[in-house]
Amino acid sequence: MDVESILQGSWEFRVEHKDIRIYSSKVSGSEVLGFKGEFELQVSLKKLIGLFHDMENYHRWVHHLVEMDVLERKDITECLVRQVINTPWPLQNREMIMRTGLKSGGENAIAVTMTAEPDHLPLNPNYHRVRESSGLWVFTPTGHGSVHVTFVMHIDPGSDVPSSVSNAGMFEVPFYSLNKLRQLAMDRSYNPPYPAEIEEHISIIEDIPDTL
What we know:
Blueprint: H1 3-7, E1 12-17, E2 20-25, E3 34-42, H2 45-53, E4 65-75, E5 78-85, E6 94-106, E7 109-116, E8 128-129, E9 132-143, E10 146-156, H3 163-169, H4 172-185
Parallel strand pairs: 6-8
Antiparallel strand pairs: 1-2, 2-3, 3-10, 4-5, 5-6, 6-7, 7-9, 9-10
Protein backbone atom coordinates (compact mmCIF):
# COMPACT_ATOMS: atom_id res chain seq x y z
CA MET A 1 0.00 0.00 0.00
CA ASP A 2 1.56 3.27 -1.18
CA VAL A 3 0.96 5.65 1.72
CA GLU A 4 2.09 8.81 -0.08
CA SER A 5 -0.05 8.26 -3.18
CA ILE A 6 -3.15 7.65 -1.05
CA LEU A 7 -2.66 10.79 1.03
CA GLN A 8 -1.95 12.92 -2.03
CA GLY A 9 -4.88 11.54 -4.04
CA SER A 10 -7.83 13.49 -5.43
CA TRP A 11 -9.64 14.44 -2.23
CA GLU A 12 -12.62 16.81 -2.10
CA PHE A 13 -13.14 18.75 1.12
CA ARG A 14 -16.64 18.16 2.49
CA VAL A 15 -17.00 19.43 6.05
CA GLU A 16 -15.14 20.53 9.19
CA HIS A 17 -16.57 20.06 12.67
CA LYS A 18 -14.81 20.26 16.04
CA ASP A 19 -11.50 20.74 14.20
CA ILE A 20 -11.96 17.44 12.34
CA ARG A 21 -11.80 17.83 8.55
CA ILE A 22 -13.55 15.29 6.33
CA TYR A 23 -12.84 14.67 2.64
CA SER A 24 -14.22 12.25 0.05
CA SER A 25 -12.80 10.65 -3.08
CA LYS A 26 -14.02 8.42 -5.89
CA VAL A 27 -12.69 4.86 -5.80
CA SER A 28 -12.02 3.02 -9.05
CA GLY A 29 -14.55 0.23 -9.67
CA SER A 30 -16.90 1.27 -6.83
CA GLU A 31 -19.91 3.56 -6.53
CA VAL A 32 -19.16 3.98 -2.83
CA LEU A 33 -16.91 6.93 -2.02
CA GLY A 34 -13.79 6.68 0.08
CA PHE A 35 -13.31 9.09 2.99
CA LYS A 36 -10.43 10.81 4.71
CA GLY A 37 -10.59 12.41 8.13
CA GLU A 38 -7.79 14.37 9.77
CA PHE A 39 -7.01 16.51 12.78
CA GLU A 40 -4.23 17.55 15.16
CA LEU A 41 -3.89 15.74 18.47
CA GLN A 42 -1.92 17.06 21.44
CA VAL A 43 -0.60 13.71 22.63
CA SER A 44 2.66 11.80 22.44
CA LEU A 45 3.24 9.51 19.47
CA LYS A 46 4.06 6.63 21.83
CA LYS A 47 0.71 6.97 23.62
CA LEU A 48 -1.08 6.94 20.28
CA ILE A 49 0.77 3.78 19.23
CA GLY A 50 -0.10 2.22 22.58
CA LEU A 51 -3.76 3.13 22.05
CA PHE A 52 -3.79 1.32 18.71
CA HIS A 53 -2.25 -1.79 20.24
CA ASP A 54 -4.83 -1.73 23.06
CA MET A 55 -7.43 -3.66 21.08
CA GLU A 56 -9.45 -4.55 24.18
CA ASN A 57 -10.51 -0.89 24.32
CA TYR A 58 -11.36 -0.37 20.64
CA HIS A 59 -15.05 -0.39 21.56
CA ARG A 60 -14.44 2.91 23.36
CA TRP A 61 -13.69 4.78 20.15
CA VAL A 62 -14.38 2.77 16.96
CA HIS A 63 -17.80 3.88 15.70
CA HIS A 64 -20.54 1.25 16.21
CA LEU A 65 -18.07 -1.55 17.01
CA VAL A 66 -19.88 -4.40 18.80
CA GLU A 67 -17.39 -7.28 18.49
CA MET A 68 -13.66 -7.57 17.90
CA ASP A 69 -11.33 -10.58 17.91
CA VAL A 70 -7.65 -10.97 17.12
CA LEU A 71 -7.47 -14.03 14.86
CA GLU A 72 -3.72 -14.06 14.22
CA ARG A 73 -0.70 -12.12 15.39
CA LYS A 74 2.40 -12.50 13.23
CA ASP A 75 4.52 -10.14 15.32
CA ILE A 76 4.20 -6.72 16.92
CA THR A 77 3.71 -5.10 13.49
CA GLU A 78 1.05 -7.34 11.93
CA CYS A 79 -2.18 -9.05 12.98
CA LEU A 80 -5.46 -10.30 11.54
CA VAL A 81 -8.62 -9.01 13.22
CA ARG A 82 -12.34 -9.61 12.97
CA GLN A 83 -14.74 -6.73 13.62
CA VAL A 84 -18.54 -6.62 13.75
CA ILE A 85 -20.13 -3.24 13.13
CA ASN A 86 -23.66 -2.45 14.28
CA THR A 87 -25.95 -1.76 11.31
CA PRO A 88 -29.49 -0.35 11.53
CA TRP A 89 -32.39 -2.82 11.43
CA PRO A 90 -33.52 -4.59 9.25
CA LEU A 91 -29.99 -5.01 7.84
CA GLN A 92 -27.60 -7.57 9.27
CA ASN A 93 -24.57 -6.36 11.19
CA ARG A 94 -21.47 -6.07 9.01
CA GLU A 95 -18.58 -8.46 9.68
CA MET A 96 -15.09 -7.45 8.51
CA ILE A 97 -11.89 -9.48 8.53
CA MET A 98 -8.84 -7.30 8.00
CA ARG A 99 -5.09 -7.67 8.17
CA THR A 100 -3.42 -4.70 9.83
CA GLY A 101 0.21 -3.80 9.40
CA LEU A 102 2.46 -1.18 10.99
CA LYS A 103 5.07 0.47 8.80
CA SER A 104 6.99 3.67 8.27
CA GLY A 105 4.91 6.43 6.70
CA GLY A 106 7.92 8.55 5.71
CA GLU A 107 9.43 11.62 7.43
CA ASN A 108 9.08 10.20 10.98
CA ALA A 109 5.45 9.24 10.29
CA ILE A 110 3.95 5.89 11.30
CA ALA A 111 1.31 4.18 9.15
CA VAL A 112 -1.22 1.47 10.02
CA THR A 113 -2.53 -0.30 6.92
CA MET A 114 -5.75 -2.32 6.75
CA THR A 115 -6.48 -4.85 4.00
CA ALA A 116 -9.57 -7.07 3.73
CA GLU A 117 -9.23 -10.86 3.88
CA PRO A 118 -12.94 -11.79 3.65
CA ASP A 119 -12.40 -15.51 2.97
CA HIS A 120 -10.23 -16.21 6.01
CA LEU A 121 -13.20 -17.62 7.96
CA PRO A 122 -16.32 -19.52 6.84
CA LEU A 123 -19.36 -17.31 6.40
CA ASN A 124 -21.51 -16.80 9.49
CA PRO A 125 -25.25 -16.58 8.65
CA ASN A 126 -25.74 -14.15 11.53
CA TYR A 127 -23.67 -11.46 9.79
CA HIS A 128 -23.14 -9.91 6.39
CA ARG A 129 -19.47 -10.40 5.45
CA VAL A 130 -17.93 -7.25 3.96
CA ARG A 131 -15.84 -8.21 0.96
CA GLU A 132 -14.42 -4.85 -0.10
CA SER A 133 -12.67 -2.73 2.48
CA SER A 134 -9.29 -1.10 2.90
CA GLY A 135 -7.92 1.61 5.10
CA LEU A 136 -4.98 3.54 6.40
CA TRP A 137 -4.02 5.49 9.51
CA VAL A 138 -1.04 7.84 9.45
CA PHE A 139 0.47 9.51 12.54
CA THR A 140 2.84 12.37 11.76
CA PRO A 141 4.60 14.21 14.63
CA THR A 142 4.42 17.96 14.01
CA GLY A 143 6.44 19.27 16.95
CA HIS A 144 5.78 20.23 20.60
CA GLY A 145 4.20 16.85 21.29
CA SER A 146 1.48 17.22 18.66
CA VAL A 147 0.59 14.52 16.12
CA HIS A 148 -1.27 15.00 12.85
CA VAL A 149 -3.71 12.07 12.55
CA THR A 150 -5.08 10.97 9.17
CA PHE A 151 -7.72 8.24 8.77
CA VAL A 152 -8.48 6.95 5.25
CA MET A 153 -11.08 4.25 4.57
CA HIS A 154 -13.15 2.71 1.81
CA ILE A 155 -15.89 0.22 2.72
CA ASP A 156 -18.49 -1.22 0.40
CA PRO A 157 -21.03 -2.57 2.91
CA GLY A 158 -22.74 -4.85 0.37
CA SER A 159 -25.42 -4.94 -2.31
CA ASP A 160 -28.22 -4.65 0.25
CA VAL A 161 -27.11 -1.07 0.99
CA PRO A 162 -27.56 1.37 -1.94
CA SER A 163 -24.43 3.37 -2.69
CA SER A 164 -26.42 6.61 -2.25
CA VAL A 165 -27.21 5.57 1.33
CA SER A 166 -23.60 4.61 2.04
CA ASN A 167 -22.31 7.89 0.65
CA ALA A 168 -24.88 9.97 2.54
CA GLY A 169 -23.84 8.45 5.87
CA MET A 170 -20.12 8.04 5.21
CA PHE A 171 -19.07 11.07 7.27
CA GLU A 172 -20.33 9.57 10.53
CA VAL A 173 -17.56 6.95 10.64
CA PRO A 174 -14.51 9.22 10.48
CA PHE A 175 -16.02 11.99 12.61
CA TYR A 176 -17.28 9.88 15.51
CA SER A 177 -14.27 7.55 15.50
CA LEU A 178 -11.78 10.43 15.45
CA ASN A 179 -13.68 12.43 18.06
CA LYS A 180 -13.85 9.48 20.45
CA LEU A 181 -10.21 8.61 19.76
CA ARG A 182 -9.27 12.17 20.73
CA GLN A 183 -11.28 11.98 23.95
CA LEU A 184 -9.65 8.69 24.94
CA ALA A 185 -6.12 9.77 23.99
CA MET A 186 -6.48 13.01 25.98
CA ASP A 187 -7.80 11.20 29.05
CA ARG A 188 -4.95 11.37 31.56
CA SER A 189 -6.33 8.35 33.43
CA TYR A 190 -5.95 6.22 30.30
CA ASN A 191 -2.38 4.97 29.90
CA PRO A 192 -2.12 2.05 27.48
CA PRO A 193 1.19 0.16 27.59
CA TYR A 194 3.63 1.15 24.89
CA PRO A 195 4.90 -1.88 22.88
CA ALA A 196 8.62 -1.03 23.05
CA GLU A 197 9.53 -4.01 20.85
CA ILE A 198 8.08 -2.11 17.91
CA GLU A 199 11.34 -0.15 17.80
CA GLU A 200 13.10 -3.31 16.63
CA HIS A 201 11.18 -2.85 13.37
CA ILE A 202 10.46 0.90 13.04
CA SER A 203 12.32 4.00 14.18
CA ILE A 204 10.14 6.04 16.56
CA ILE A 205 11.06 9.72 16.97
CA GLU A 206 8.90 12.00 19.09
CA ASP A 207 9.04 14.98 21.40
CA ILE A 208 7.14 15.69 24.60
CA PRO A 209 3.72 17.39 24.59
CA ASP A 210 3.62 20.96 25.86
CA THR A 211 2.14 21.32 29.33
CA LEU A 212 0.37 24.29 30.84
